[in-house]
Design brief:
The complex is a heterodimer of chains A (203) and B (732).
Chain A (H helix, E strand, L loop, with lengths): L1 E2 L3 H12 L2 H7 L9 H7 L2 E14 L5 E14 L5 E7 L1 E2 L5 E3 L11 E6 L17 E4 L10 E2 L15 H4 L6 H26 L1
Antiparallel strand pairs in A: 2-3, 2-7, 3-4, 5-6, 7-8, 8-9
Chain B lengths: L13 E2 L31 E5 L12 H13 L8 E4 L2 H4 L11 E4 L14 E4 L2 E3 L5 E4 L1 E3 L6 E2 L7 E2 H12 L28 H10 L6 E9 L10 E5 L5 E6 L5 E7 L2 E8 L16 E2 L5 E8 L3 E10 L6 E2 L8 E4 L3 E11 L4 E4 L5 E7 L1 E9 L7 E8 L5 E11 L4 E5 L3 E3 L5 E7 L6 E4 L2 E4 L4 E5 L2 E5 L6 E8 L5 E11 L3 E6 L2 E3 L5 E7 L6 E4 L2 E2 L2 E6 L2 E5 L6 E9 L5 E9 L5 E6 L2 E3 L5 E7 L5 E5 L10 E3 L1 E5 L2 E5 L6 E9 L5 E11 L21 H5 L3 H19 L2
Parallel strand pairs in B: 2-3, 2-4, 4-8, 9-10, 11-18, 20-26, 28-35, 37-44, 46-53
Antiparallel strand pairs in B: 1-16, 5-8, 6-7, 11-14, 12-13, 12-15, 15-17, 19-21, 21-24, 22-25, 23-24, 25-26, 27-29, 29-33, 30-31, 30-34, 32-33, 34-35, 36-38, 38-42, 39-40, 39-43, 41-42, 43-44, 45-47, 47-51, 48-49, 48-52, 50-51, 52-53
Helix pairs in contact in B: 1-3
Classes of the chains: A alpha+beta (203), B mainly beta (732).
Chain lengths: 203, 732
Amino acid sequence: MRTFLPIALVGALFLVVAGLGAAFRDVSASTVEKLDLAGLFDRSEHVVHGRIAKTSVRLGAHGRPETTVELELTTAFWGGAQTSLVFTLPGGALSDGREMVIPGLPKLAVGEEVLLFLSRESKRGLRLPIGLAQGKFQIVRDEHGPAVLVRGASELEVLDPATKKSEKLETRATLDWQATVRELERLANVRREREAREKAESK
Amino acid sequence: MTSARRLGLFAGALVACAAMLGVAFAHVRLTSSSTGSGLKWNSPGKIGITINSTGSDDAPDGSHVAALRNAIAAWNDVPNSKATLVEKTDPDEMARTDWESDGVHLIWFDEDDDSGYFPLGSGVVAITPVWFQSDGEIVDADVLFNGYGFDFTTEDVGGAFDIQDVATHELGHLLGFDHSGWAGATMYPYVSPAVIEHRSLSEDEVHALHHVYPVGGFASITGTVRRTSDSTRVLGAHVVARDANGRTAASALSNSNGDFTLRGLSAGDWTLYATPLDYPVSGWNLSSGQTVQTDFQSTLGPTVTTQASGAVDVGNLYVGANAVLSLGRNNDHFPLRIVRGTTDAYFLRGAGLDSLCTLECSDPSITIQVVSWMNTLVAFDVTAPLGAERGHADLIVTNSLGDVSILPAALEVTPPDPVVTSVSVALGSDLGGTTLTLDGANFEPGARVVVGEHVYVDGVDATVVDDSTITLTTTATVPGLYDVVVLDPSGVEGRLDDGFEFAAIPTIATVFPSAGSDLGGTPVTIRGASFEVGTLVRIDGVTQTNVTLVDSDELVVITEPGSAGGPYTLEVENTSGHVATSVFAYAATPDPMLVGVAPASASTAGGDPVTISGANFGVDTEVWFGADAATGAGGVSVDVTLVDANTLVVRAPAHAAGLVDLVVRDGATGQATALAGAFEFAEPEPSGGGGGCATVTPHGPFEPRSAAEGLAPLVLAFALVRLARSRRFALR
């Protein structure tokens, strides 16, 4: 499977969050769709940060596996979820060893801390991370502290602002998770205001 | 291609899911998450593929079929591979949409998210759900296009995805292959509208087939990737082999022990290198949960010689420390197409790309001239010589410290686009059989020509005569106006818009009789092809009102009155306006009429007297035994004795046993009449004589009058037959 590449999302993260123009040049030109962070945010029905609490696989309506994921929420940047969000992805491995894989679909492992941009439900109640692997960001913390990290499926790798001693890292933009949070909150406000305005205009 | 982009702090920049304990194979295979088994079809020789006939609503002309057939052929055409995708063309099968059934492996455009796999905004262009057992045996796989969210094209419509390009990639998943680390591979994970370079397989996919579905033996190269600094093993290192010409040839990922096996190789010399699987393809693009470490830099290894089969162990392949140098991002467009004999300008993104760097191609015949270095971007010109082979080559950047980053298969050399300037014939029958000559340029051996749903292949049903000429003979095709497309084996194409039309063009083989009374009323049988409901018949411009369509090959007309003379033009016009012509004449004399024959049978030995009854016989009347009643063709003529205008007497000819038609024709005017199955030849009985008539006439002196006597009942019977036949003509 191939996907539209929300490279601009990553670029936007660099630009908006870290404010690094050089990094932006790496990623600003979207290959296909001009999906920046705002665009990705607008496509999502849920933008959520949390930890994967549980996954279970069952045969779905197609007679094919579907994986139900329970996300223990830390923050819902968008969408109505409160403390947890349960959603279903296509694919997965059944207990008898039978399995369905959709190439490119990211795996969500129990215990993982993630930022997810989730699509609305399909006609059959399934969701997908926007752009599949690109719609999942893993947050990694190490023993040094809150540290960071967001990893994009594409441009962004695992980066740790708590250990900036690395010469290599000094040449790199590092993401600040809190700054990312602020940007996501700002995007939520923008979207909220726009939708309210559109709703008022439609009356 | 290593760089500061990789972290090194978290588990050595480990992009990891569940560690895979099995062998990491050349290219990348889809694997079972529970057992690590590589996915494969256990009966790969006939993997049924069904192209849903509805296709894409963006290509309502049905052109998706040929595009998908070309995608299928890309995999089937690889020699020494057992994998064969067999298209199922039964219309009922092609109407199926139940992709989830194990019994059908469908290529389907999901226009309404019926699958449930395409929620709006998902960004997913197409998917291939692969359903398998724990041992890796694929049970079912289907290619689903997201017609709900995206547009698709077969003719380079802006903003739409090329159906053939996407399908070729997805069929790789269907066969059990994951995304490739090669920027120019078909299994490269990203696609943009207008990209068509993934239509043709790279050597990575060829070796994938040779590895998983081999016919015969292949060589392999094994080894272990280790860090120079501490000899630790590198997991998920991307190990690539180049051939003696510097072309990218095969690849592997090292497994969880750092071991790699390059499989599916032929005899030859191979230069190895290891490079981190980071940009533009990373471990995140893989589905199998393989561990991928990227904390090292691209490092050249030894050159290895393989025989036709057998394994060569290179031992340890040491890689250097990570470096602040990389080339290629996934928002660059890959592959970079280099047209042989031309210079093309490109730029790539990256890191550490300063003016002290050098940039070269792994194929030394391809020259690179850097225009500018901008640290995060390098602009350059690439020139491929005229004789450069198709295929992929690496780009290699080296900085002033000697650090290296290699971008595998970034360049793809292709010939120039074929150009189709004209087709010798613009219109042909939907039944096929039209010989076409395509004129143009840049036609190369192995070219494929698409006209309608059919793909004509050089050496099979088309011939590349030279670089400017292709000939082919059309096959039956649904009527319509079609582009004529020539595809090079590299996937690039040339197109003549609306270059050829298939139409239900009527043809006339016979008109019988070829003349009729100027008073009209003559039953005329027109034999030919592509007759249809609504077909018009005109004689000398006069539309005939009594026309019966017997079938697509036969019309029967009861003529309107006309002016004696001719021959006049007889036209058959289909509803599409296409016309076939023949001739027909009007005579000032009444049509001969055949009422009866007695006896109605005779000896195969011939010589039996036969009396023919009817009307309007004359001195020019001919009698033909065995002539076809519908066409007048064939048969044996006999000498005729004209008794009167209503009676002829002849001697039956020698003829093989059996029922035959009888035709009576005016040799001067062409007017004729016939009775089907009117006469029977039988083997002579011991007692001698023919039969079938009330009167048995012995051989001997011929007495026509006596032979004609006693025939009244037969005359009546034949008249009834004639009447019945005439009524059939009148039915419409």
